[in-house]
Amino acid sequence: MRRIDYVISYVRSLERSVAFYRDVIGMEVRIEGDGYVEFAMDNTKFALFERARLPELIGSNSGEAPCGEIGFIVDDVNAESERLRTAGVEILTGPVDRPWRERTLHIADPDGNIVEYAQKL
Predict the structure, then answer these.
(1) Into which CATH architecture does domain 1-63 fall?
(2) Inter-residue contact 89 to 24 (CB < 8 Å)
(3) pLDDT, tens digit (0-9, with 9 covering 90-100), for 75-121
(4) Where are the domains of the chain?
(5) Cβ neighbours of residue 1 under 8 Å, at least 6 residues apart?
(6) For residue 56, what is the DSSP state?
(7) Nearest to 108 by CA among 5, 7, 16
(8) What single DSSP character describes residue 91?
(9) Which of 70, 95, 99, 112 matches a 20 to 30 Å C-alpha distance to 25?
(10) How far apart are the first and last CA of the chain?
């Protein structure tokens, strides 16, 4: 394996989560339909899938989808922090410099999935 091809988060409310990633995070919707929304990205696919449709996708007894994390590289974590605070988003951690030479901040999407912004130092 050489790279991640896609990341899909299973969400309770597709409408609410699409609004979060589109309006708060700033992503553009590329494809949508049948409980699936994919965002326009240059390096990989990032999509949301409606949890209520999981039995169709992975079996009738799929249970509760796991929580996950998605990370975005940005030029200025401090600027993103201010933009998110202004938008009323709760910052979970950061901005903080990490030992692995990144400045990070973490927020949560409407389903509790973690979103990290990272700036290379």
Answers:
(1) Roll (3.10)
(2) yes
(3) 999 999 999 999 999 999 999 999 888 999 999 889 888 888 999 99
(4) 1-63, 67-121
(5) none
(6) H
(7) 16
(8) P
(9) 99
(10) 27
